[in-house]
Amino acid sequence: MRKKLIVLGGGTAGTMVVNKLHKKLDSQEWSITIVDKDNKHLYQPGLLLLPFGVYEAGELVKERDHFFPKGIEYIQAEIDKVDADSNTVYLVNGKTLVYDQLVIATGTTPHPDQTMGMDDAEIWRKSVFDFYTLPGAVALKDALNRFEGGRLVVHISEMPIKCPVAPLEFAFLADAYFTQRKMREKVEIVYVTPLEGAFTKPVCSKQLGYMLVERDIKLEPDFVIEHIDSQTKTMVSMDEREIPFDLLVTVPVNMGADFIGRSGLGNDLNYIPVNKENFLSTKYPNIFALGDASDIPASKAGSVAHFAIDMFTENFVEHLAGRPMTHNFDGHANCFIESGDGKGLLIDFNYTVEPLMGMFPLPIVGPFPLLKESRLNHMGKLAFRWIYWNLLLKGRWIPIPALMSMAGKKQATQKEGVDSHASN
Amino acid sequence: MPVIEIAGKPVNVNEEGFLTSYDEWNEEIARELAKQIEIEMTDEHWKIIKFLRDDFKTQGETATSRRVQTVGGVPVKEQFVLFPKKPAKKMAYIAGLPKPKGCV
């Protein structure tokens, strides 16, 4: 009898995992099954650009099974729960699957219902929008198009969120969008965050602080939302600050999949506690969580999933052979940041090294400048869609190492730190 | 990273004055740090700081405001009363732990 590997979730992480492991594992010994509730794979980085007319919805969706390797089993079904003690996955359709090894890659999802008033029918997707879902992004495109002026609030409910820098990019793109439509003076843009600022790391604060000022984007930091008054269209914080809005673009509380909560596998936000260097569950020796579904203290982003899975593949083979896992992940992330007007920035960092200045991937010649606006970085973001569908998902080689490199980076000096204080 | 003296003891801090070494913290240092940001420590304050210290030991990360509420038992609203305006940052500062961060 062949042993069974089951992968839950056929998104970015799940698809990469089955492609990598299909090549690594002996098919005489292992069968691979992947489970997802639908057959639509969404190119999530495109959701940021869709509201500004860069993409149509149809350009961002392809069939999931097109990206799975031949020879694995694909089950289209909703997951009810996992009983980790009996190694069993229960599906909503009543069927059960028994596994030897389980990989959970069911991502993170916005939950507007977690904030009182946010999903009131009177305002939800009428004047309050999310953009990390396809229906949200499509509705927002229409709302931006119709917007005649007033206060646009870009808001993060609570960390962690999927692609943490996207709301900031949204504010930059909105500034460029309304400038292009020659109505920027009619729009007040306010960026509202539960963190202490738009930038929280020393070198970024120092190098990028100008970006909000230059664009006349107002900042409301330390804003922890308590509720939204749908009648007056006002956000109210825990310390009773009020922010009225005409158009609210919010990132609702993000949570892992509901079945993780039902299965008792998650933390208070349904993320699965794992070892941050090898993604093995802290509770079960045959369950791994990859991509946004785990609780690792890295950005919830496709690039992190990509680098993580490069390391995981090697570790998993060692794990199956009963050897210690030796390919420790360092939390590497590499993200293009849109800054509007056909320009972008690039950041490259890990668990311990903050985003720094310099050139990427090669010293001096780059070609991509780090932490600096450039047209090339914007081109990089657009080109990534092709790379995603054609190389990344299929587990093909991409010339960026899984672990972060200091080559080309300028070390942060004491002077580059910001002079701020907890009481500020 | 600079070394400064707090409550008569040399400690390592980062550029924002946050302690960088878990084991260099003690209650006297906490009291001194609290004073610097104009917070008078009461039993309610200590309850949170002690929770954060213990939680960090097992989790390796500073607990979020949500976690202080759900696991530590102090509602977020109450955290704002005890540590006005910036509870997450102030709690971490006094507890000698890393502040909450985004990715940039």
CATH superfamily of the largest domain in chain A: FAD/NAD(P)-binding domain
Q: Would you count the extended β strands of chain A for me? A: 24
Give the largest chain-chain interface (CB within 8 Å). A-B, 40 and 36 residues
Taking the alpha carbons of the first and last residues of chain B, their distance comes to 20 Å
With strands numbered from the N-terminus, the spatial order across the biggest sheet of chain A is: 5-2-1-9-20
How many domain regions of chain A? 3
Gyration radius over CA of chain B: 13 Å
Total helices of chain A: the number is 8
Distance between the termini of chain A: 64 Å
pLDDT averaged residue by residue of chain A: 95
Structural overview:
The complex is a heterodimer of chains A (424) and B (104). By secondary structure, chain A is of the alpha/beta class. Chain A has three domains: 3-110 and 255-320, FAD/NAD(P)-binding domain, CATH 3.50.50; 112-250, FAD/NAD(P)-binding domain (3-Layer(bba) Sandwich), CATH 3.50.50; 334-416, no CATH class. Chain A has helices spanning 12-24, 134-146, 166-180, 202-208, 210-214, 258-262, 302-320, 375-392, and strands at 3-8, 30-36, 40-42, 61-63, 73-76, 79-83, 88-91, 96-98, 101-104, 108-111, 128-129, 150-156, 187-192, 217-220, 225-229, 234-237, 242-244, 247-251, 253-256, 287-289, 333-340, 343-349, 358-362, 366-370. A five-stranded parallel sheet of chain A has the order 5-2-1-9-20, covered by helices on one side. Chain A has a five-stranded parallel sheet with strand order 11-18-12-13-14. The termini of chain A are far apart. By secondary structure, chain B is mainly alpha-helical. Chain B has one domain. Helices cover 47% and strands 8% of the residues of chain B. Chain B has five helices and two strands; from the N terminus they run ββααααα. Chain B has helices spanning 27-36, 43-59, 65-70, 76-82, 87-95; strands at 3-6, 9-12. A two-stranded antiparallel sheet of chain B has the order 1-2. The A-B interface holds A 158-159, 164-165, 168, 193-196, 198-202, 204, 208, 222, 224, 226, 238-239, 268-269, 276, 297, 299, 333, 335, 337, 347, 349, 355, 414, 417-423 and B 1-2, 14-18, 36-38, 60-61, 64-67, 70-71, 76-77, 79-80, 84-86, 88-90, 92-93, 99-104.
